Amino acid sequence: METIIEPFKIKMTEPIKFTSRQQRENIIKEAHFNLFQVAAENVTIDLLTDSGTSAMSSEQWASMLRADESYAGSASWYHLKNIIGNMTGMPNILPTHQGRASERILFSLIGGKDKIIPNNNHFDTTRANIEFTGAKAVDLVVDQAYEPDQAFPFKGNLDPQKLKSLIREVGAEHIPLCMITITNNSIGGQPVSLSNIKEIKDICQKHNIPLFIDAARFAENAYFIKQREKEYAHLSVGEIVRQIFDLTDGATISAKKDGLVNTGGLLLLRDNELAKRAINLLILTEGFTTYGGLTGRDLEAMAEGFLEAVNEDYLRYRIRSVDYLAEKLLRANIPIVRPTGGHAVYIDAKSFCPHISPNLFPGQAIVCALYRVAGVRATELGSVMFGKDGGDLSQKNCHHPSHKMELVRLAIPRRVYTQSHIDYVVEALIEIYKDRDKLKGLRIIEEPSILRHFSLKFAEV
Ligand SMILES: *Cc1c(COP(=O)(O)O)cnc(C)c1O
Predict the structure, then answer these.
(1) Residue 4 belongs to a domain
(2) CB count, 10 Å around CB of 1?
(3) Which of 66, 111, 288, 410 has the most Cβ atoms closer than 10 angstroms to its Cβ?
(4) From the candidates 17, 36, 71, 114, which is the catalytic residue?
(5) For 39-75, what is each residue's pLDDT tens digit?
(6) pLDDT score recorded for residue 388
(7) Ligand 1 centre and the CA of 257: distance in Å?
(8) 343 lines ligand 1 (CB under 6 A)
(9) 222 included as an active-site residue
(10) Is 186 in the pocket of ligand 1 (CB under 6 A)?
(11) Counting beta carbons within 10 angstroms of the beta carbon of residue 169, is it exposed (0 to 12), middle (13 to 18) or buried (19 or more)?
(12) Helix (H/G/I), strand (E/B), else coil: 379
């Protein structure tokens, strides 16, 4: 059979609230054209993020009832530790409440002034946690990443030549570790090849620089390796995952993405001495080493979630369902970033509405139209999100690669929406694209000093 179907059936449903066009006109005006200010119950299809929005399986819910809530040494902790240990081979596994807590602990220990941390592309919270210690975060992704219509299979790769130049320029002694983010979230969920990870590992080893991965979407990345990198096509996703981790000295993981849970994180460390110091910080702010700020229920859901994340029937459906949306948009000539990433489809807003200049936020105009027409919520990743007047964290985001582009992200929550939901989104976008000349730009009428995109107020021009 050619049709790839959802590898699950639905046992529990959550109603979607429908709103009329007139209601949505009122809601978006009251929200000052900022979708972060719209209540979730007024959203029909929510594609704001894939983070913490996964649907859990019956096995995950069942495991939560079985969970052990002991303070120290709970059975649920050992369950999680065994599963992650077998999957990654890492000797030290620390639970945290989410990815950024792992980042804060790691960079508090190895960051600091005069330190430089390279990555293919740092995720926002990673950059912020590095820079908070006084260290510098540097992005060394391959140049193909910034060409939206170039269908290069591993746009997420870290450029080996750029890494060598950086080491030559600043000296290996100033680089406490090198990171690789899989998949590369900031440039569109683009994968990193296994041969690239091997090449970067060789360079790091030569200079005694530990290699870490930001593994929020490690399973989706492993599936892309199996699909797109011929020499590894014969391996199972589990074997590819193990090869990736075997090349590394540690990892920070947000379990809110591939981990298929609503919150949770991990810090994995190969070095026992570093792990001892990390555990001290963990106990200080997160919790004891066998729960790290999570309940036994959370630990159980995570254990089962990580097992399901590497299931190849699930991954085939997951990657195909995102590509299905992309294919339909391409067929309607709607400009999107190619190739399709693992967790989202990105619309190229500059090509979609060339009549709106970046200072009038073409991406935000599309986001508003999607809500008006269909009650669909997406995110702008362009001059609104990364504009240079944002101050604080937004200021740091000026280095953000997406700032070179004006994008709208349609992030797909895992196991939440069916094919007809996606068809509905496509229909809305086709309607908007037909009338794209009528889209209006926006101007900012009120701007907070920090993290401006959450509470900016706009007016239509
Ligand atoms: C989400 C994410 C993080 C941060 O994780 P949180 O769980 O949101 O704190 C770090 N890196 C990448 C690549 C992410 O996608």
Answers:
(1) no
(2) 4
(3) 410
(4) 71
(5) 999 999 999 999 999 999 999 999 999 999 999 999 9
(6) 53
(7) 8
(8) no
(9) no
(10) no
(11) exposed
(12) strand
Same domain, 287 and 324: no
Pocket test for ligand 1, best of 54, 96, 97, 100 (most atoms within 8 A of CB): 100
Nearest ligand 1 atom to the CA of 185 is 13
Domain boundary among 309, 329, 346: 309
Please tell me whether residues 145 and 237 are part of one structural domain: yes
Q: Where are the beta strands (DSSP E) in 306-402?
A: 344-348, 376-377, 379-381
**Domain of 238?**
58-309
271 given a catalytic annotation: no
Task: State which of 120, 127, 257, 261 you would mutate to test the pocket of ligand 1, scoring each by most atoms of that ligand within 8 A of its C-beta.
Answer: 257
Domain contains 6: no
**Measured in angstroms, how far is the CA atom of residue 10 from the centroid of ligand 1?**
28
Which pLDDT belongs to residue 389?
44
Determine which one of 257, 328, 350, 400 is catalytic: 257
Supply the pLDDT for residue 405.
83
Inside any domain, residue 236: yes
User: Residues 122-168: pLDDT tens digits?
Assistant: 998 999 999 999 999 999 999 999 888 788 999 999 999 999 999 99
**Sign of the dihedral through C-alpha 356, 362, 364, 370:** positive
- Tell me what pLDDT residue 452 has: 82
Q: Please check whether residue 2 lies inside any domain of the structure.
A: no
Q: Which residue has the tokens 């004006």?
A: 406
Digit-coded pLDDT (tens) for 242-254: 999 999 999 999 9
C-alpha to C-alpha distance for 336 and 81, rounded to whole angstroms? 40
309, 337, 365: which is the final residue of a domain?
Answer: 309
Q: How many domains does the chain have?
A: 2
Q: Are residues 183 and 322 in the same domain?
A: no
What residues of the chain score a pLDDT lower than 70? 388-403
| Alpha carbons 276 and 268: distance in angstroms, whole number | 12
Residue 220 and residue 342 in contact, taking contact as beta carbons nearer than 8 Å: yes
Ligand 1 pocket member 123 (CB < 6 A): yes
